[in-house]
Structure formats: C-alpha cells, structure tokens
Amino acid sequence: MASPAKDLGPVLDKDGVRLTVDDAIATVTLTNPAKRNAQSPALWRALAEAGRLLPGTVRVVVLRAEGKSFSAGLDRQAFTPEGFDGEPSFLDLARGGDAELDAAIAEYQEAFTWWRRSDIVSVAAVQGHAIGAGFQLALACDLRVVADDVQFAMRETSLGLVPDLTGTHPLVGLVGYARALEICVTGRFVTAEESVATGLANLAVPADQLDDAVRDLTSALLAADRNAVVETKALLRGALDRDYESQRAAERAAQARRLRDLAGIGD
Asked: Is the pTM of this model over 0.85?
C-alpha cells in the first residue's frame, strides 16, 4: 500500500506500530514489512497503547500495514526456548501457574479488544497474507476492506494451538459456526472473493485501489451524525445477545435518547 498523502507526526511509533491522528481519523500502521509484520508481545503492547492514546476527536480508526503482507501472524521466535529479548518465552509461560498464564494471554488480548469500542468505527485495510494473529487482528475491526490478493488463514491448529486473540467470536458471527470451524481446523486460505461472499469482508478492490477505497469508506462514515453512529453501533453489537423483544426495547430507548438530544432536552 502507498503511504498516506498527509505526513503527520506520529502520536506513537515503536515496536512495529505507528499511530497518527488527523482530527477525526486515526491511522494505526504495522511498520515491519521486512518480517511481513509478524507479531510479538511488544507489538501487542504497542497496539493496546495506541488505543489508549486516541484523542476524543477520533471517530474512525484505520488499521493498515506496510509492505506486501498485512501480517504473517505470530513471530515464530515466540516458540523458541529463548523467546524474545526481555520477554518470558511461551515455553516459560506454559511452565507457570494457571493464573499467570491466563493473565499473560489476557494482556495480549488487550491489543485486539479496543477496536470495537462504541465511540469509534474501525476499518482494517488488508492486503496479502493475514494469517493467524494477523487474521484475528483484521477480525478485531468493525469493517474490512481487502485487496484482491488477500489471503486469510487461521493456522493455530497446525501448531497445536487454538485462536486465542479474540478472533473466534467475530469469525463465527460473520461466517457462521460450520464455516468458521472448517476455516480454523483446516487452516486453508480464504480469498478476497470468498471473503466478500461470506461477509468476512465488506469490499474487495484491486491492490492499487485499496487506499482510495478505504478513504471513500472513511468519508462516508464521517458524514453520518456521530451520536447516531455511536447508538447504532451499540444497538447492532448487542443484537445477537438480545431476544427480539429486548432488541425492540433497546431500539426505543436509543431513539428516545437521540430525540431528546436533538430537541435539546437532557435525560
């Protein structure tokens, strides 16, 4: 992908993650194309920090990656006895107690949880390989625009592991249980065409049009009233956990808040 046209000073730039903010739009970029943006605990901490650093002006967050691949997944160095410098290896974590292991995984997951906050809409621009942790990072976003060369794959089972970076819930919600199971267990590639057909991606475009397509989508998202977007996102996020009558009630309550707000009447 080409670099954004506007050269803004980064709010954050470390461990393979760069955050820039232009008023209502924040861009989080994976910046280690030489390693196909392979992921590590340090990168996850930087992603979590990016979420905490978002100013209140931000309405849309774009997630993108430099190079030919979005993210090739977990850096295999994690599975070596030495692990990463200054980090406990995964083997060391496995030898620890259950509480310590659970806490470590929960900390890693924080890099993937903030993208669906109700006050923002997140858009992943995905090209090339998005494997394992890379696939789950794309799934963490609200929307996905993909290049026609995209190849999603969930390869954790081939390593004797399970997808544990929050990707299973959105994957089942998008493509259904049976297809999600087949994708995860076989580890096969999911192409751009299948991604759009199954609802995994909102739009697929030629690779050289990815930036423009994301820019157009971002403009359309920003054209809507911010408070209405926040309420609508919360309604849709909660729909699967509510029955029909509860969803009707939630719609009424949300609309009442919007009407009072538009009329200048407080709660």
From this structure: yes
